[in-house]
């Protein structure tokens, strides 16, 4: 857990030190109170005492109490500042780290867990800092200073206090041992809750359409019940502790007064006043000691959960991305835009078998290379290896004649315009989505945006929107239709003016006419780019310079439409299943 606190900045560490000093001062002030109380008790019982002396001692008591209050407020403010800043920094670090992760790390942690780790887990650590700075530091100082104050008083009182503390410890340790495993499991259970909630919200339409509300509710109910039961168990255990602590405190007061009464009875007349004032002072100190232990207990309740949270945060921070940057930037060893696969075999990290096997081909600048094959044959996987969403298991992929692993990722991505199978849009406007990101070589101008939208056959619908190019887009593009989203995502790839354009099954969401027009526009406007197109429809790729047919991760056909119709059985089957012989002729 302590490792996560290494993320404290120097300023936060200095503030923490300041709050420790303030706490020592506050404890000193708190422990001065019983001294003045004892003085007043003595003054009251001593004949001939001056009223002004009592006022003076009372005034000092007030000052101490006021000083303690001010210091406590100051410490609370500092603790809040430290914990808030620390939380903000940690969230930023975590966010930055997750951005560097490849898809492998993200699936190892799971998206839901990464969300909980960046939110709830950080809150747990923040709470520990707030409470810890106030109570964790204060309690031992308070206990130590109070114990030194009462050491030279009667051993009977000390014994009573010692026994009370021992009973307190036994009760608390037993309760903690019972509740600890539950406290530790709370974060994992919160992960599960986020996971089910997220799944439900993202799939809401399907849930509704299939009348699966009850099923989802049950699924949610199960994880929610487990979390509730765990919370209840820990809260009940703690609820049981509090009255016991109260009982111990009251019992200790009673014991101190009882012992005091016996001692006073046995003492001579002169000693009685001293004993009486000692008793008052001792009971105050004893209460402070018990209070200190109570504070520690509160912290001990929070520590296990926060420790698990800190460990979960640190786990993310310690994870090194598997996809690392190469040292080359802007290096070129062949015609810019050339993409070459050399005996590429790829296996997903958690899978047993390879999804792509011994794949080799070359795509030259200006060429359109299409990939077709049955569902699950590995088309998306293949194109996703080019921007290094994953690294090949064996073989190599060359971009501009250089292994993609040698480039810095930023530099590699500068060459690529990518439209994913499932269009991902971001909150903003049509314009901000098309001009999204940057590649160091082309600044996307307004005219480029308009042109890219036109090539993507999106002008018609965009110009009909109230704010046209500035029309708002909600997170995930939920205010656009599937086809509209896909066209905006195609426009985004085109606006990048990259040398390599990758369309991962992006044309399937378009109607046949738009599909044809788009391909025509792309041929004209992006004539020099290498176009890699994953497609389901023969119509989409019929005109491609080269079509690569995949079956179970292997290339079973490589050529243009006519060649494949003549010699590739898999291609023929796909073609005949989609088009009539006349259309194919
Ligand atoms: N993240 C992943 N982890 C493990 N296996 C995966 C992952 N993504 C895809 N696969 C597997 O890899 C194989 C190829 O998937 P891929 O998405 O590349 O196929 P595809 O040809 O694009 O299919 P489709 O036409 O349906 O999009 C499938 O068997 C799939 O189950």
Structural descriptors:
585 residues, alpha/beta, ABC transporter transmembrane region fold, Rossmann fold, 6-stranded mixed sheet, 4-stranded antiparallel sheet, 20 helices, 10% strand, elongated, binds adenosine-5'-triphosphate
What does this structure look like?
This is ATP-binding cassette domain-containing protein. InterPro entries: AAA+_ATPase, ABC1_TM_dom, ABC1_TM_sf, ABC_transporter-like_ATP-bd, ABC_transporter-like_CS, P-loop_NTPase, Type_1_exporter. It comes from Fundicoccus ignavus. GO terms for molecular function: ABC-type oligopeptide transporter activity; ATP binding; ATP hydrolysis activity. It is found in: Cell membrane. It is a single chain. Helix content is 64%, strand content 10%. The chain has 585 residues and is of the alpha/beta class. Among the domains are: 87-318, ABC transporter type 1, transmembrane domain (ABC transporter transmembrane region fold, Up-down Bundle), CATH 1.20.1560; 334-407 and 536-585, 3-Layer(aba) Sandwich (Rossmann fold). A 6-stranded mixed sheet has the order 6-9-10-3-11-12. A 4-stranded antiparallel sheet has the order 2-1-4-5, with no helix packed on it. It has a two-stranded antiparallel sheet with strand order 7-8. A hairpin with a 2-residue loop joins strand 11 and strand 12 (554-559). The protein starts with 9 loop residues before the first helix and ends with a helix. Bound molecules: adenosine-5'-triphosphate (ATP). The site of adenosine-5'-triphosphate has 12 residues, from helix 10.
């Amino acid at each position: 857990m302590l490792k996560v606190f290494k993320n404290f900045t120097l300023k936060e560490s200095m503030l923490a030190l300041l709050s420790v000093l303030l706490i020592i001062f506050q404890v000193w002030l708190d422990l001065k109170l019983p001294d003045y109380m004892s003085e007043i008790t003595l003054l009251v019982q001593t004949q001939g005492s001056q009223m002004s002396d009592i006022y003076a001692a009372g005034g000092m008591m007030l000052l101490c109490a006021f000083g303690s209050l001010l210091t406590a407020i100051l410490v609370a403010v500092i603790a809040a500042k430290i914990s808030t800043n620390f939380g903000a920094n940690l969230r930023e670090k975590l966010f930055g780290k997750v951005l560097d992760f490849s898809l492998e790390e993200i699936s190892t942690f799971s998206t839901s867990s990464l969300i909980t780790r960046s939110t709830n887990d950080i809150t747990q650590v923040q709470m520990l800092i707030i409470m810890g700075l106030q109570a964790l530091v204060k309690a031992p100082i308070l206990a130590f200073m109070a114990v030194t104050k009462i050491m030279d008083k009667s051993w009977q009182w000390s014994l009573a206090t010692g026994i009370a503390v021992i009973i307190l410890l036994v009760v608390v340790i037993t309760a903690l041992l019972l509740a600890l495993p539950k406290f530790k499991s709370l974060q994992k259970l919160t992960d599960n809750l986020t996971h089910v909630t997220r799944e439900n919200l993202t799939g809401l339409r399907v849930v509704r359409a299939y009348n699966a509300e009850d099923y989802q509710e049950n699924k949610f109910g199960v994880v929610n019940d487990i979390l509730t039961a765990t919370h209840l168990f820990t809260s009940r255990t703690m609820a049981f502790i509090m009255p016991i602590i109260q009982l111990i405190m009251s019992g200790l007061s009673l014991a101190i007064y009882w012992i005091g009464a016996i001692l006073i009875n046995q003492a001579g007349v002169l000693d009685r006043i001293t004993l009486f004032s000692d008793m008052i002072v001792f009971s105050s100190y004893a209460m402070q000691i018990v209070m200190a232990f109570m504070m520690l207990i509160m912290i001990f309740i929070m520590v296990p959960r926060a420790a698990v949270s800190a460990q979960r945060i640190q786990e993310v921070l310690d994870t090194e991305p598997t996809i690392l940057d190469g040292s080359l930037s802007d290096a070129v060893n062949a015609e810019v835009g050339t993409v070459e696969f050399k005996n590429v075999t790829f296996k997903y990290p958690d899978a047993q078998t390879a999804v792509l096997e011994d794949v080799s081909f070359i795509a030259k600048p200006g060429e359109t290379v299409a990939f077709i094959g049955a569902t699950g044959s590995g088309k998306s996987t293949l194109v996703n290896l080019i921007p290094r969403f994953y690294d090949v298991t064996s073989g190599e992929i060359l971009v501009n004649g250089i292994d993609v692993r040698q480039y810095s990722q930023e530099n590699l991505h500068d060459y690529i315009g990518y439209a994913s199978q499932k269009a991902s849009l971001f909150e903003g406007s049509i314009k901000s989505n098309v001009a999204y990101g940057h590649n160091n070589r082309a600044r996307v101008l307004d005219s480029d945006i308009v042109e890219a939208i036109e090539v993507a056959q999106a002008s018609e619908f965009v110009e009909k929107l109230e704010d046209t190019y500035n029309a708002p887009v909600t997170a995930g593009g939920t205010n656009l239709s599937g086809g509209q989203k896909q066209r905006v995502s195609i426009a985004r790839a085109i606006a990048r003016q990259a040398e390599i354009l990758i369309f991962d099954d992006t044309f399937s969401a378009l109607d046949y006419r738009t599909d044809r027009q788009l391909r025509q526009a792309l041929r004209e406007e992006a004539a020099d780019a290498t176009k890699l197109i994953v497609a389901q429809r023969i119509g989409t790729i019929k005109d491609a310079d080269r079509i690569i047919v995949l079956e179970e991760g292997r290339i079973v056909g490589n050529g243009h439409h006519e060649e494949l119709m003549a010699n590739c059985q898999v291609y023929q089957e796909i073609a005949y299943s989609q088009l009539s012989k006349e259309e194919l002729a």
